[in-house]
Design the sequence.
């Protein structure tokens, strides 16, 4: 089950475990998901945003139509702040930076995404290294946009794929961890009713 972080009459905030879909996929074997599990406790819960199946961390769900509308608008306007923690292969030459590479679906290899400066949609990620090891680095990632697989593709494009990434990391980095080392640890946004700024955290499990 997801970990329940916060709830009131309008929202519920949870921490999704790695390996669990955010919403149902195609086929009977892909019906178990975070949204359905949350609905067991909050029957009116509605998905506002998603995390990749392989990514763990914070998600907010709306409990009524007005809250859903408000939160969806906030995400469209890029009001929420998000911080992810990841462990990437190698050590970057700089300790921080910004990746601005447009992304689109790799249609021949769906659901993979790819860098495409011509037909891709603008995508921006800020990053900085917080801890270095002999062959890898712990980073904080701040996605400015919210493209599918954005953080994973941007790190790969930097030459430092995320450890355990079954889609974008080559062997042996792919099997160096039994999960993708990417976690959504911080989420900040405005409460859909009061307008108060809220911040939630879910400690990184790796």
Sequence:
């Amino acid at each position: 089950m997801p970990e329940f972080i916060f709830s009131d009459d309008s929202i519920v905030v949870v921490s999704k475990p790695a390996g669990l879909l955010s919403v149902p996929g195609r086929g009977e074997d892909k019906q178990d998901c975070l949204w359905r599990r949350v609905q067991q406790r909050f029957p009116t819960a509605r998905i506002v945003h998603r995390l990749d199946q392989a990514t763990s961390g914070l998600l907010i769900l709306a409990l009524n139509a007005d809250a859903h509308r408000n939160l969806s608008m906030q995400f469209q306007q890029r009001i929420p702040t998000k911080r992810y923690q990841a462990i990437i292969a190698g050590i970057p030459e700089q300790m921080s930076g910004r990746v601005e590479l447009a992304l689109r679906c790799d249609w021949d290899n769906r659901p993979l995404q790819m860098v495409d400066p011509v037909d891709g949609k603008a995508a921006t990620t800020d990053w900085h290294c917080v801890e270095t090891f002999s062959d890898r680095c712990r980073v904080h990632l701040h996605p400015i946009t919210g493209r599918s697989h954005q953080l994973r593709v941007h790190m790969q494009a930097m030459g430092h794929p995320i450890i355990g990434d079954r889609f974008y990391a080559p062997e042996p980095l792919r099997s160096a961890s039994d999960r993708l080392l990417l976690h959504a640890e911080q989420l900040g946004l405005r409460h859909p009713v009061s307008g108060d700024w809220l911040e939630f955290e879910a400690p990184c499990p790796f």
Notes: The chain has a mean pLDDT of 97. The domain at 83-182 is CATH 3.30.2350.10 (Pseudouridine synthase). DSSP finds three helices and twelve strands in the chain. The radius of gyration is 17 Å.
